[in-house]
Design a protein that fits this description.
The structure is a single chain. By secondary structure, this protein is mainly beta. It folds into 3 domains: 3-129, Immunoglobulins (Immunoglobulin-like, Sandwich), CATH 2.60.40.10; 132-247 and 366-479, Immunoglobulin-like (Sandwich), CATH 2.60.40.1930; 255-364, Macroglobulin (MG2) domain (Immunoglobulin-like, Sandwich). The chain is built from 2 helices and 34 strands. Strands 17, 28, 30, 31, 33 and 34 form a 6-stranded mixed sheet that branches. Strands 19, 21, 22, 23, 25 and 26 form a 6-stranded mixed sheet that branches.
Length: 481
């Protein structure tokens, strides 16, 4: 073990001794186990208590979230203290109690447990949650998915970033920043049909550390519980769907991304629906505008060279929305089709005499605009065009994975040519049969250095991605003879 590792272990042991600590009281709290997993049942044993007195068992943990500035710039993982009363007990006539408790979904690591009487701590102990992983199925038809759920992840960087490997190839990472350390990932069942392997590794650097289970100072992945499986990919009964986007979420635009008003009036803009893909039919309604007055409706795009370049700004995009005239009550309504556009919030403003007096927005969601061809021999160039890819740091870099092998990322930024779609091209490979292209969200840039999760396929994107959940996109190419 290195000096750094020994130092870390020493600090951890000192902290645990401090947490276990002692009080001036003789009252005692003992746990049947010092450590365990989410879902385990343990027993709290109170001794030397005041007979027939009421006590509370208080559990200390944290609440996690992604720190994000202006709903765009990802700072990193942030955790705040959290405490909750998990048991209320009454000591027996002999001054004791035994109470069983099931460890809930919570973050891994050391948790302080306090025994309190009237709000005063009279005894304390600790319990360590060890992360573990559950594979929901060991057999799936070609093109379907294997689901992995991780419990007790984080919050430390060393135990919050886990990598999932398919057939000794790293697919991407999963993390439990939110949902109290629980994270879900789906791994495509790719060919050929037959046995394959899935394994979970751990490393704050975002790539598998191959000494996890042999020489890591943090012990084996999952504390010795199963973290590698042999699975079976079976033949399909029918051809797979060619291309699809996962189910969309009902969401609202982010007002932080609206331009400022030139004049504060009673005029309002409302849009229905508030979200959707390009091509969605939307109705824009204005109220409390000046009567019988022309109103210029303006669709805005976010414009710039990229997150690492000049500042991103909003600029009007001509030809999307019309000029309308309010009626005698200052009201108007217009229907339009959401155009091909960059994703996230698209501000929509209403201007009277060149001054912006009302603003709303539409949340543009991802769409597969073009995927061709869908079959051909090895070496065929596959062309993919996506729309609705946002400019923000948490959605700007969709990551392409081919047969569970990371291929690379694309960028969803609007440039000086007003490009509103993402276009990529690459060559088909593999044996004759179906091959699967998955597009996962990633985090383009993060202020904090650890854990290193920038521009990597985020497999737990549905329940642990910053700001808003983003859907995955999937395509199937058939390699012919």
């Amino acid at each position: 073990m290195s000096d750094d590792q020994e130092g870390f272990t020493g600090v951890r042991r000192t902290l645990e001794r401090h947490l276990r600590g002692s009080t001036d009281s003789q009252e005692t709290l003992v746990l049947s186990d010092d450590d365990g997993y989410v879902g385990d049942t343990i027993t709290f044993k109170g001794r030397n208590l005041e007979p027939d007195q009421r006590y509370e068992v208080v559990w200390h943990s944290v609440q996690g979230r992604w720190g994000v500035l202006q709903a765009n710039e990802v700072v990193g993982q942030q955790y705040q203290p959290r405490r909750e009363t998990i048991l209320t007990v009454t000591a027996s006539a002999s001054g004791a109690f035994n109470e069983t408790w099931t460890v809930p979904e919570d973050y891994g690591g050391t948790h302080r447990v306090e025994l309190q009487k009237g709000g005063t701590t009279v005894a304390r102990n600790t319990f360590d949650i060890t992360p573990w992983f559950e594979l929901k199925q060991t057999e799936a038809p070609l093109g379907e998915a294997f689901t992995i759920v991780g419990y007790g992840l984080g919050p430390e960087a060393t135990t919050n970033n886990y990598q999932v490997v398919w057939d000794t190839g790293n697919v991407g990472f999963m993390t439990g920043v939110m949902n109290r350390g629980t994270a879900t990932a789906q791994i495509r069942a790719v060919g050929p049909p037959g046995p394959h392997t899935i394994q979970v590794w751990r490393n704050y650097r975002g790539i598998p550390y191959l000494q996890n289970n042999t020489q890591s100072p943090f012990g084996p992945v999952a504390g010795g519980r199963q973290s590698q499986w042999t699975v079976e990919v079976t033949e399909r009964d029918d051809p797979p769907e060619t291309a699809w986007v996962e189910g969309m979420f009902d969401e609202s635009p982010i007002s932080l991304h609206y331009p400022e008003l030139d004049e504060d009036t009673d005029a309002t803009l409302e849009i229905a629906p508030t979200c959707g893909q390009p091509g969605t039919a939307a109705i824009l309604t204005g109220t409390d505008f000046p009567p019988n007055t022309e109103v210029d409706l303006v669709w805005y795009q976010h414009y710039g060279q990229g997150i690492r370049g000049p500042d991103v700004t909003t600029k009007p995009r001509e030809g999307v929305l019309p000029t309308v005239t309010s009626d005698a009550d200052g009201r108007f309504q217009v229907e339009f089709e959401v155009p091909l556009a960059e994703g996230s919030t698209r501000p929509i403003a209403a201007a009277v005499d060149g001054r912006t007096v009302a603003v709303t927005g539409f949340m543009v969601q991802p769409s597969i605009e073009r995927f061709e061809p869908t079959s051909g021999p090895v070496g065929t160039e596959i062309e993919i065009e996506l729309s609705g890819i946002g400019w923000t740091a948490y959605e700007n870099a969709p990551y392409f994975v081919y047969d569970n092998k990371p291929l690379g990322y694309a960028c969803g930024m609007t440039d000086e040519h007003k490009t509103t779609t993402v276009e990529v091209a690459f060559q088909a490979s593999g044996q004759p049969g179906y091959h699967f292209i998955d597009v996962y969200p990633s985090i383009f840039e993060m202020q904090e250095d650890e854990p290193e999760v920038e521009i990597k396929p985020h497999l737990s994107y549905l329940d642990n991605h910053p700001v808003r959940p983003l859907p995955g996109m999937h395509m199937v190419f058939e390699v012919t003879e």
